[in-house]
Amino acid sequence: MTSLAQLDPATRQALVERLKRIEGQARGIARMVENGRDCLEVVQQLAAMRAAVDSLSAELVQVMVEQCWQRDAAASSKTLSQVIRTLVRAGR
Known about the structure:
Blueprint: H1 9-34, H2 39-68, H3 73-90
Helix pairs in contact: 1-2
């Protein structure tokens, strides 16, 4: 099984930083809802957060292909298929 532990520390840290920014977006949206902000503003922020998550997902797949699966080519095809199926289902 491919593990993020296989990534170099700088790449892992960059991914964590992006996740923290997304987490901050989610907290900001929660505050907007609590404060009764305009619906359009909330939807716009939700769309921005989803775009950030989608972008991070695509980057993570790329990083996994480039760094993790190069080490284990035999397992990569099956694992890549599983990852793609998961992303496609999530995008529905």
